[in-house]
## 1
Amino acid sequence: MQFITLLTTLVLGSTVTAHMELGWPYPFRDKANPNAPQAQIDYSMTSPLNADGSNFPCKGYQVDMDDSSGAGKSIVTWNAGGSYNFSLIGGATHGGGSCQIALSYDKGTSFTVIHSYIGSCPLSSGEDFQFTVPGDAPTGSSMFAWVWYNEIGNREIYMNCASVTIGSGSGAAPATKFSDRPELFIANLGNGCTTVEGKEVQFPNPGPAEDVTTKNSVADDSGSYTGTCAAVKGISGSGPAPSGGSTGESTSPATTAVAVPSTTTAADTTPAADTTPAADPTTLSTSTKTMTSTVTVQTVSPGVFATATASGTAPATTGTSPADPVATGTSGSGSAMVAGSPCSTDGMWNCVDGTSFQQCASGQWSVVQMLATGTQCTPGQSSTINISAIARRRGLGRRIPRRAPRDFRP
């Protein structure tokens, strides 16, 4: 009998090498990117950047912006001043962490941060994150970049980039000019500074308060990075962490503003057989979760979202997908633990019914996530998780299309 090697779908514990990627907009060389040459597709998009910084930025794929084959063709047009979303997909969130998104107009020579997400980024596969393109952002060809520092696991930096177009917009100019916005925070690339496991990175300069989302799940984030952050290939360079090795709390005012979380979706992570976006993306989710409040979202136009109402403050879940926490459970029971409920041992795994899993991170259980299609785990809680392939008869397998982007524009 032939067995499937699972290390490329779920690498666990301290040996984790990767598990989240930019799902939308489609990054360079992603299997879902219609512009990616077949011979150049990267089937390990979830891997972190090389520790020596050799493939920083963008895993080196920013060169596709100059590719005459069209590999760097724009995926989507966003108008200056408009509100949009990006999504993250993968198999393990490593407790969340902190993310930044940025735009580059010089093909990766420099990056300007347009939003920082401090804590809880991400907590589930298929999660959408809202942002606003600065009203004075230059128009034309641009490169969108997502950077992630995971909370639990090896000290790494994850980065994916996508080709986008910034269209003209309207409205008042923002209080902070585009040229005055910060550069990306860069660590864990042998540049003199390192993030601290179990902490959610507090960016030393996250940007204007209106472009910062803070949802810390760690009680004490002091000392979230140490050392002096030197520039990498001329990009960034944040200087030393504050005395005592603390996080480098923001020098921007009111950086602890909390944004109302949007509804997130649990999405299939199986490689897509058909990447053509559906006409109505709102029908594609398999289950819906509201993290901290019940939020009604009105679609203004494709990719433009406006919060209509927000009711209640208690966590709520809907749907019957196995990704929904349904019970408190006990050790060895194989039952799901309520997301956010206390747990005693960080790093502890919980296999739920053999089909999904969650992890203890910063004293709390994470949301439940589905295993990769064709795999199973041994139910119960343990310091390790036993993953194996499900034997199936020839001809019975099928591939499930990947979730279409919310702000897809034909």
## 2
Amino acid sequence: MASKKMKTPAIDIGIPEDQRKKIVAGLSAFLADSYTLYLMTHNFHWNVTGPQFNSLHAMFMDQYTEQWNALDVIAERIRALGFPAPGTYKEFAKLASIKEVDGVPKAEDMVRHLVIAQEATARTARSLFDLVDEANDQPTADVLTQRLDVHEKTAWMLRSLLEE
């Protein structure tokens, strides 16, 4: 006798669906900013030239590698909250606060663009804390805190390259 297939249980992690949906909307924007920052950093790694080539090429590689790994963490948090993660250029372009850079900027301008993009990504993460705190969603708060630390530190290091 075949056993009867059980219905998939509703998500019951202690955060109501309406709050999870709002958190996911914010995390989706954060994922879009993070992916856009990743692409920008990888593009600059490929195309940097000039006297700082070696140091910037290596720095950008470290940064885009770290960013690539973070994308999975953010997307998997969205999935754990019960919703699909955005994953197309079209969705990312619609959700991101960071605008793509046209052409190939000079090395110093690449650094400026990355400072702006790192700080924009940090602002997007920070904007979610009230919602996450209200929902008592510590795992999302943990992801955001870890990412904020990276984005703020990276922005500081990049900005230091621009100081006279």
## 3
Amino acid sequence: MWEELSKPLKRFIKLRVKSDQDAEDILQNVFYKIQTNIGGLRDVDKLNSWIYTIAKNSIADFYRIKKFETEVFETPEELASVTDDESTANEEIAQCLKSMIMYLPEKYKEAILLTEYHNLTQKELGERTGLSASGAKSRVQRARGKLKEMLLCCCQLEFDRRGNVVDYKHKSDDCKFC
């Protein structure tokens, strides 16, 4: 199985992560999961899609863990004061978004900070704020929508085929966010 699948799986993974080393680690993880869970596969005809689902989930897990390892900001003031010397478009837009969060209504600001920066699930957000799971999910989605609206009012964005910001231009010099 390794000989047949390792090259196409590695290509699949490398298209979705930046580092060859990370791709290799994810590939090893995929084969570990295949080995330990193959007994639960019900339909052998769907083996290929099952394997690629494991790969997609492993990539998502990789990014989830990487996000968790990044710095967590305790207060909105700390979040707003962060600056980064690197100047890629994604990082600059991320800084704008961090500033924009401070302009959200309190309930949306709280939802974004707790889910995106303190890594709470939407269910945990609901439990913490007294909302139902669907109410918490709606609040996070509305907050994201408001951030997107603010960003698009402020900036003109150019994306690559993967959805990464490759360039941006402020629509006016008096943007209060960036």
